[in-house]
Amino acid sequence: MAIEVRIPTILRNLTDGEKAVQGKGATLGELFTDLEARHPGLSDRLVEGPGLRRFVNVYLNDEDVRFLGGLDTPVTDGDTVTVLPAVAGGAG
Amino acid sequence: MRYDSLLDSLGQTPLVGLPRLSPSWAGEGGAPPVRLWAKLEDRNPTGSVKDRPAVYMIEAAEKDGRLTPGCTILEPTSGNTGIALAMAAKLRGYRIVCVMPENTSAERTQLLEMWGATIIYSPAAGGSNEAVRVAKGLAEEHTDWVMLYQYGNEANARSHYETTGPELLADLPSITHFVAGLGTTGTLMGVGRYLREHVPGVGIVAAEPRYGELVYGLRNVDEGFVPELYDPDVLTTRFSVSSADALRRTRELLAEEGIFAGVSTGCALHAAIGVGSKALKAGEAADVAFIVADGGWKYLSTGAYSGTLDEAEDALEGQLWA
Fold this sequence. Notes:
The structure holds two protein chains of two kinds. By secondary structure, chain A is α+β, with helices and mostly antiparallel strands. In chain A, 17% of the residues lie in helices and 27% in strands. In chain B, helix 7 crosses helix 8 (263-281). The interface between A and B is large, with 26 and 56 residues.
């Protein structure tokens, strides 16, 4: 088993058009490093310095990782990670 | 209850319990009570939570002299804020121009026109991001128009700090969690700050709608948008809720508790049930309040309430449902 990472449309040029890719690691940061090996450039679009890029949101099983532990958030096999760009939403 | 005018009847909305959908309403089987409470913001003058920030933003702009009789108000809005502003503008003698994404429900256009708003549509791709961009461009062209700009207007969050937050605490002193949809972030920032000042350890939980791919039609990840009002330090948790989960919960709320709410309420309810279930598992009592942002009326044409869940989800694909 592995961790599924769902990729938004605008980053699929880095995953050969795949909507979701699989990876492994004990933390989110390790998972992104693992993905980078097969999808060069992906990590740079998600990570900036010690954290996530400002307009990138990452969810672990639907929970925003910024409120869990950022790139240090522990992940385990069977988890689903969703990457989404930040958009203006809501009942505005 | 008697008021001198419609605007005076703003707020003081009911907080109602959900005995059937709560994880443990009365502490069944020795479990701690974990109760859900719905704040019915559809009971505001134009039927949504947005009446609060709309009135506050107009009053603030009048006070600082930006808004004077005969002025034109400009606002990027997916509907509810525009509808609330249009009503208040009509009563106070302003013109209003709303920039709205074209992929919003037909009822919103009808309501805006009823209250006399002029609508300029922004492209569906990009959703509200695009509406904000178009509105900012129009503001540069028409320097005499007054953009209240709900995403960055402190009066938006202040309306909830001064009204919604105190109402919640007065009605539910034992509140442990507050859940609301994340859009302009005004509700969460205002209520969140108020509750944090008065309730140690309170959970402030954001429920963020996860749309179909069309809505995320940005050219690159550096073109995203974070509202100027947003301060992540006010929140304790942020959930991403899919259209399918939001729809399912919207229907459960209707079927189990009789509350006919818009789809964004299902989004908040999903997160509320999530934190409630966590509390129950941990053996902790909880009183979770969430916002019913509006009623379901404006979304009937979207198909959200008819047919199977799959059909409703297909019908909502590509639409801004919150």
